[in-house]
Amino acid sequence: MATTGQQKQQGQQQQQEGMQQNKTTEKRKPVFVKVDQMKPGTNGHTLIAKVLSSNMVVQKDRVASRNLRQTRIAECLVGDETGTILFTARNDQVDLMKPGDTVIFRNAKIDMFKGSMRLAVDKWGRVEVTDPANFVVKEENNLSLVEYELVSVVDE
């Protein structure tokens, strides 16, 4: 017959084993989307696209709390076989966006700028250069040229 001390030990061991099983949760596979599936205000997109062009918009040096920090922003036209969209590259992302390269956007979001969609990757996402893709970009369908307007609906 087990004493209360042995029972407590067994209970603690079982609890620790349960915690270890919970810690090793399985990662889910990314769901890749196409450019034409993107809608305003959405986030969490993972997609593969080719860089068509990259234009530097802002480049300025800023003094922030005793160290020199450079702010760089570039607008890059990226696309896949379904369409194109403007990507707003910030700081280190600007260096990755070379025309002709294929990149993977992870956890990308759609920002609205002057009524049109822009693809963006913040600190929670990632931009990676990958192997060249074998698709032809459909340049006729530029989602950033579509202008959206926020309309408030009044219930009667």
3D architecture notes:
The chain has a domain of 104 residues: Nucleic acid-binding proteins (OB fold (Dihydrolipoamide Acetyltransferase, E2P)), CATH 2.40.50.140. A 5-stranded mixed β-barrel has the order 1-2-3-5-4. It is built from 2 helices and 6 strands; from the N terminus they run H-E-E-E-H-E-E-E. The mean pLDDT is 82. It is an alpha+beta fold. The radius of gyration is 23 Å and the shape is extended. The termini are far apart.
Number of strands: 6
Structural class category: alpha+beta
- Amino- and carboxy-terminal Cα gap: 73 Å
Helix content: 10-25%
Strand content bin: 35-45%
Radius of gyration: 23 Å
In what order do the strands lie side by side in the largest sheet? 1-2-3-5-4
Q: Which superfamily, in CATH terms, is the homologous superfamily of the domain at 35-138? A: Nucleic acid-binding proteins
The whole-number mean of residue pLDDT values reads 82
CATH class of the domain at 35-138: Mainly Beta
Low-confidence blocks of residues: none
- What would the CATH topology of the domain at 35-138 be? OB fold (Dihydrolipoamide Acetyltransferase, E2P)
Number of helices: 2
How do the SSEs run, as a string of H and E? HEEEHEEE
Shape: extended
CATH-derived architecture of the domain at 35-138: Beta Barrel
**Could you describe the largest sheet, including whether it forms a barrel?**
5 strands, mixed, barrel
